[in-house]
Amino acid sequence: MEEMKNPDSGFMKETIKRRPLNRRKLLRRTLITALMAVIFGLVACFTFLLLEPIISKRLYPEEEPDTVIFVEEQEDEILPEDMFVDDSQMQPEPSGAPALVDEQIAQVLSEVKFGIEDYNSLYKGLSEMAAEVEKSMVTVVGVNSEIDWFNNAYEYEGKISGVIIADNGVELLILANVEAIEDAETLKVNFIDGKQCTATIKKKDNNINLAVLSVRKAVIPRETMDKIAIVEMGSSAGRSLVGTPIIAIGQPMGVPGSLCYGFITSAGSVIHLPDSVYKLITTDIYGSQSATGILVNMKGQMIGMIDSLGHSEDAKNLICAIGITELKKVAQNLSNDSEIPYFGIYGADVTVDAHQELGVPYGAYIMEIEMDSPAMEAGIQSGDVIINMDGYEVNTYTELISYLIDKNPEETTDIVLCRQGPEGYIEMELQITLRQKAD
Question: Which CATH code is given to the segment(s) 341-436?
């Protein structure tokens, strides 16, 4: 501000001058303001990302899925040393008793006459039972996108059959062999009423390509939920399966919704896989080599998952299945999103003859070791017999598998085994760190 004297008026006159603009200072303030704005935005984003799930959980708590438990079959186990029959304790049958019974049965059968109506009634009952089971069946559709030679996009689908095995309160859980669709980009599930919902693979067993798929109940319409059902699991144990009638439901002919009647022709074979052994059920049903679905007994209970693992070269089209008894524990772990531990052994039970004639102790006999497996790294060899795991006595290979499947990957397990030496079998103690089997 400058003061000037006006010669005419004799008064002082003031003139205000603007302060010169400091461009450097203005630029600095602008940059500081912009920086503070960026910092504020980052802090706000971080706070939102950090607190939003917590606030959402408080305001809208997500329901936790229930633990899935399949009831284990209560069966009196017969130890190898008990598989003898004491002839002194057997009571002789009265002379002529079997012949008399056969004559009575033959007489009764000769008096029974079946007509067309009887057969119609019989198959109508089978059809009605199959229709009830089909409420538990789904078609799993794997969708992939490709580009053809003319640069046109198109989609192709693979279809398999699955079965609803559980409801954990949040999801419907579906058991299926996903080998044919495991590379699919998206998975869809078609229910009995034709309603289609998106599905995801919850957990997969890399041994047999079985997986549990989940469909969130929130996306399933109420009318669809009223029409579907959870399958009832039966038993594939016992020695009386051969000759019993069964129904193959799902895709036994390679087509969704197909159905076949037949009989079990064999149930004595097994499929040896790492850390597992499964009963193989064969039937007289001539179907597709790519068949999927389930076998059902006359009570409407699932007794096996149709699978091609057991197909022989001369019977590729006969329907085979893996027994449900051996699959229950695996299905339970997959349903609960539990990791399946990897040991890396193939084994068998020690027979009575091997025990008595060769002195092999009862336990889990190791037939083969997988390369680079935890078992190999721990020093287990073919011919060893595992008799104890973490303090639990092991009498059979089945018992070893049952103990093993309850373990977790990366868990350390104490093993007691017998190894043959120059003077017979000697006991050894080993520690094994399990891990998860890779794809």
Answer: 2.30.42.10
